[in-house]
Amino acid sequence: MPANIQQLRTSLPSTNVWQNLNTQAAAATGAQNAHQTGNHELPGVHPSGQSWHAFTSSKNQHQPYVQHLNQSINGLHEFIHKHAASGPQKRKALTNVQNFSTTKINCKPAALTPMMVNENRRNLHLIAQQLKNDAIPLEQRVGLALALTEGLNVCNEGATLNIQSCASELINQQQGLAGIVVGLKNQLIDQQLLQLVKHVDARQLSPAMAEAFEIHHVQALKNHVAGQWGLTAIEDRYATDQYQHQVGPMAQALLEKTITPATLANLVADRIANKLVEFTSSELNAGMPSEQLKTEPLRRQLQAEFGTRIDLQHCLQFSEDYLTVTIQSREAIAAHVIDSFKNIGLVPKDASASFILSEKTISTQQAIEQTSHLLGAPPVRQMAFNASFWFGHTLNSSQQEKEDEERKKTQRHHTSA
Fold first, then answer.
1. What mean pLDDT do residues 19-28 have?
2. Alpha helix (H) ranges present in 230-317?
3. What is the DSSP code string of 23-38?
4. What is the DSSP letter of 43?
5. Is the pLDDT of residue 335 over 80?
6. Of 1, 121, 182, 364, which has fewest CB within 10 angstroms of its CB?
């Protein structure tokens, strides 16, 4: 048994496993095509001195890129205007988009950045396309669009990270079990690493500095674990190697303790139960007359949401006389989800669902306490002065004092003579 669970723990955070799930998820909704359309025909612009100067100096060169950026940002603005609920959040979101457009896109050409015309342009195009993707629930699209607007008017690196994160989340909001699992995994990684960064930085940075570097330190840790957890490493000058070396080993151990097959199975089971109520009635929780349940339409709705690997019969429980029907227990649905995990390659084929679900789960705070021994020492802050200067100055002063004393002795000798 111990060998079996060890195999599970090492197979879950596997690069090949997550790459395979990303491929399955993309195939489920044609997201690969969306990625291809995201690679707009405009070539990337080299950020070096002469090439970049020529690009910003020539209207013929930079105008097509600005137009493409405007198309995408206008698409975001129109989507929020049309679909977001009226209120302060919507007004603030629209204002943020307009400010971003004015200051970062339609600014003086010399103020454009390579990140804006390359990475941001491609990802904003992808976002604009995916906001039109009806395969992604409208509620999810609106939520991600509003969240993006909160992170547009920050430092250039921070805005780039927020735009990239929104594009990734939209891709991961895909129907089918693989897409749901990838999305849950990414959400959990963000949540766990954010809590870890807050824990670490509160002890070594001022509150203002901790808040300013929060997004960059989370990205540093995501870069550190990217290879094992199917993430994309993103270059960020504030996501330093020093921070990765200090906190990275702790971050990796934290994720292994908190993101397990059991954790993902239970989260999927909760989502299935919520969707069954959404598709039918809240009475399904306590029990509803079987004659009121239209199983075939419900089966189609469930499979449209979770894919064909989730079977309705494993999610419902009928009374012995078949007069009433309720939702299966969380444990029963999670066991069915584990069996489905085998089919998508997330856990080994011979894995025991009951054994996996018997594994004790721990909170993020407990995991932080259990992995705290892996935290390295914070980077040594350089002194404001070069200590060797004072050391050298001391030596020079002592030598000067000796020379002065010798000179005085010589003068006294000549005077007395």
1. 64
2. 241-258, 261-279, 283-286, 295-306
3. HHHHHHHTHHHHHHHH
4. P
5. yes
6. 1
At residue 296's C-alpha, the angle toward residues 181 and 142, to 5°, is 45
pLDDT for 148 beyond 80: yes
Q: How far apart are CA 247 and CA 224, in angstroms?
A: 9
For the chain, what's the residue count? 417
Half-sphere exposure of 67 (CA within 13 A, CB side): 8
Structure tokens at 305: 């949401």
Cα distance between residue 267 and residue 261, in whole Å: 10
**Helices assigned H by DSSP within 259-386:** 261-279, 283-286, 295-306, 330-344, 353-357, 364-371
What are 93's two structure tokens? 């979101």
Q: How would residue 383 be classed by pLDDT, with cut points 50, 70 and 90?
A: very low
Least confident of 120-129, 171-180, 206-215, 390-399: 390-399
Helix, strand, or coil here: 325?
A: strand
The type of residue at 4 is: N
Q: What is the DSSP secondary structure assignment for residue 232, as one 8-state letter?
A: P
Question: Which is more confident, 338 or 136?
Answer: 338
- Contact predicate 178/31, CB 8 Å: no
- Least Cα distance to 192 among 147, 148, 242, 256 occurs for 256
pTM: 0.67
Encoded amino acid at 376, one letter: G
Q: Give Cα 304 distance to the centre of its chain.
A: 26
Question: Residue 197's closest CA among 244, 163, 231?
Answer: 244
Tell me the CA distances in angstroms from 405 to 362, 399, 402, 411, one per residue in order: 74, 10, 5, 10
When mean pLDDT is compared across 233-242, 247-256, 270-279, the lowest value belongs to 233-242
Per-residue pLDDT, 3: 41
CA nearest neighbour of 231 among 27, 9, 11, 13: 13
Distance between CA atoms of 113 and 90, rounded to whole angstroms? 28
Look up residue 169 and give its two tokens: 């989340």
